[in-house]
């Protein structure tokens, strides 16, 4: 039973991101490097927020403080990674042009959304992994949750929230990078605000009855962000329509 | 242990060819124009092996670390305390006094370092005086031990951990096939993929041995000391590894049975002859052909003490590679694999997955930086310092600072 729970929750949390990784990233070395580098930046932001949380002794018990600053640090490091990526553009161009590998195409550089998506996914995967990996390890273990009156849905909620945050980070990455490129700082503010909103909302569910509410709000925000990211990346309803209609044996979009 | 890639030597040597090629190359590849001045061309050349070779090292390093971590977290044998330790570490962390533990760990680490120094210099001397047979014998005996003895112990412990009964006949057949195929692949010839798999397996086994038989604190100090030793040995003008590489380059032959993992190196199967005749033959051939060979030497002579701890990772065999057969590709010493494995395995042995994950990402990023430096400096570089430093920093930072933070977050289901 515990093993089944472990696999179920692991696949809920990491199934979609894993599929995204396999289909969009795994074949392209450059994207893997960017993915890991952005994960590393998330790690740095986490390190910084833990140092702050650890250093300010009186506020160590109230997690809201650590949470707020952690969100700020994460967005700060996302910005730093954006700066780094734009600085490294020239270098990336050289790498991708000189490697005799057919998977790498200049479109990675020309279409800035690709790198934004990859770095967003890297950010998300590492943040998701960090928040759930120890819970997963406990899941497989000899104990089960819920015997002493705690919620049975703890693990399931954790898994779904992790998935939600991985996807959210991906969409945030796309929106954030594009907003900075076009200097539409309102969207940057929107990303930071929604990140803060989701994190704080999720923080306030203290018992089982709030699980559903926080899950639904998180997923609603996620869908809104997905919509924005889709529009940002140049999508429209017409695109979707053309993508699904078959015209004389041609499946590609114009 | 160091990292080097074949492209570099050739690019330095074949300047004439490259210069001729470059203008067209530039105009084809970069239609947008842009300044093709000297510095930029140089830089461009250096990025040749960029992204692809990074990934080619990421995959084996990841696999090796995955084997170690999976073993550590499922088989208790490699983490439980024993009375037996390596003879190089006479102090065993028996006291509770931090000061005593600290100096004892340093003493252990320096004894181990001394052994490594002596063995490296011994190897260098053997190589200088062309005692190839002794070196081959040494490598073959140690890989024999790893492939048969240590993998037998490993198999036994895995079966025990999963409570699987198996009779001796099956085990003997399994071990015999595994070991003999391994010896053939590593020292003679075989499919490249199989050889790489064996090299990864051997490094993982060696890393597990280190994790089990080094006292707790000593492991960390040893990792720290290895960083410094690696820097000194590869970068100092008179560093033993550097002298070794230079001697090998003077002789136009690959560093004797190189203890390396190579991404794309298909030369070794070409001529299955006995080592000595082949090496003389090929050496002459290479010298006759020209001096701008691009064969690669990446070795990892900086292995841990070879005699008692048979960590000699596989050796590629000694047939020198002739240049036209050589493909480009980065090579990484197996010692680097071992110490990456030790670091990640040790981090995971405390049971915290966040630390393991942080170490893993830090090592990969360190490897990226090392490859970037390799592209810039174009010479053999130590692969341990950046990765292991990152790994150590992130290990201690995560286990002492991040872990309590993440634990309280996970308990309250707070998501960042």
TrEMBL record, chain A:
Keywords: Membrane, Notch signaling pathway, Transmembrane, Transmembrane helix. GO terms for cellular component: membrane. The keyword Transmembrane helix applies. GO terms for biological process: Notch signaling pathway; protein processing. InterPro entries: Aph-1. Signal peptide: none annotated. The keyword Transmembrane applies. It is found in: Membrane. The chain crosses the membrane at residues 6-25, 32-56, 62-81, 114-133, 153-178, 185-204, 210-231. It is a multi-pass membrane protein. Belongs to the APH-1 family. This is Gamma-secretase subunit Aph-1. It comes from Lottia gigantea. The lineage of its organism: Eukaryota, Metazoa, Spiralia, Lophotrochozoa, Mollusca.
Automatic annotation (TrEMBL), chain B:
Its EC number is 3.4.23.-. Residues 1-12 have a biased composition (Basic and acidic residues). Residues 1-42, 295-326 are annotated as: Disordered. InterPro entries: Peptidase_A22A, Preselin/SPP, Presenilin_C. One of its GO terms (cellular component) is endoplasmic reticulum membrane. This is Presenilin. It comes from Lottia gigantea. The PAL motif is required for normal active site conformation. Keywords: Endoplasmic reticulum, Golgi apparatus, Hydrolase, Membrane, Notch signaling pathway, Protease, Transmembrane, Transmembrane helix. The chain crosses the membrane at residues 54-78, 106-127, 134-156, 168-186, 193-211, 356-377, 383-402. Residues 13-31, 308-322 have a biased composition (Polar residues). Probable subunit of the gamma-secretase complex, an endoprotease complex that catalyzes the intramembrane cleavage of integral membrane proteins such as Notch receptors. Homodimer. It comes from the Eukaryota. PANTHER family: PRESENILIN, PRESENILIN HOMOLOG. GO terms for molecular function: aspartic endopeptidase activity, intramembrane cleaving. Belongs to the peptidase A22A family. One of its GO terms (biological process) is calcium ion homeostasis. Its main location: endoplasmic reticulum. It is a multi-pass membrane protein. It is found in: Endoplasmic reticulum membrane; Golgi apparatus membrane. It is an enzyme of class 3 (hydrolase).
